[in-house]
């Protein structure tokens, strides 16, 4: 359903002199896809989310130079509402239009398939928020994501069935942000960014 009509070859980013190709993910990309994801998320609120294999999804695009993945975009397409699972560009290749090229290719295919809405959940990462805003995504809703440490978790969860919680990820309504920031060290606002397609 979401297959490419053909690979799109973009102009070379000015610094590298090598052409960058936007194309479908291939199984052979997995090692460099994982490296790109890990390095690209290091300086973000997702920095502690390591992954040792790629989770497959409906639309998987990569930007590759010399067959090395330097940008990636995964989109889940369960129906007419699609969700961007991940959009990452290697830190050495940012602000050269790579993520925008990936999104442009994805939107063309999604529109052809009758998708009418694309969304993404974004945390407190300014570059990502700026990038989504630049591409016409608007904030639709928010919630709090709380990473409770071993000490903090004991203040909200207790031993049950002989199992002692040592850490937890908790969700809360954004209206409770001030209270949650007093109680927990690591609180992130998660924003649903939405773009309606033509
Ligand atoms: C968000 C991200 C994918 C953008 O990739 P990119 O290839 O650098 O983006 P593009 O070059 O296509 O677009 C650049 C535009 O996005 C916005 N933008 C991107 N980074 C920005 C930053 N650090 N500060 C402000 N605006 C920024 C600007 O509008 C910019 O245009 P400009 O350079 O003319 O000012 C990249 O920063 C990234 O990988 N971030 C870490 C992963 C992440 O947080 N992903 C999103 C959630 S999964």
TrEMBL record:
<dbReference type="GO" id="GO:0016747">
    <property type="term" value="F:acyltransferase activity, transferring groups other than amino-acyl groups"/>
</dbReference>
<dbReference type="InterPro" id="IPR000182">
    <property type="entry name" value="GNAT_dom"/>
</dbReference>
<protein>
    <submittedName>
        <fullName>Acetyltransferase (GNAT) family protein</fullName>
    </submittedName>
</protein>
<dbReference type="InterPro" id="IPR050276">
    <property type="entry name" value="MshD_Acetyltransferase"/>
</dbReference>
<dbReference type="InterPro" id="IPR016181">
    <property type="entry name" value="Acyl_CoA_acyltransferase"/>
</dbReference>
<feature type="domain" description="N-acetyltransferase">
    <location>
        <begin position="20"/>
        <end position="162"/>
    </location>
</feature>
<dbReference type="Pfam" id="PF00583">
    <property type="entry name" value="Acetyltransf_1"/>
</dbReference>
<feature type="region of interest" description="Disordered">
    <location>
        <begin position="1"/>
        <end position="20"/>
    </location>
</feature>
<keyword id="KW-0808">Transferase</keyword>
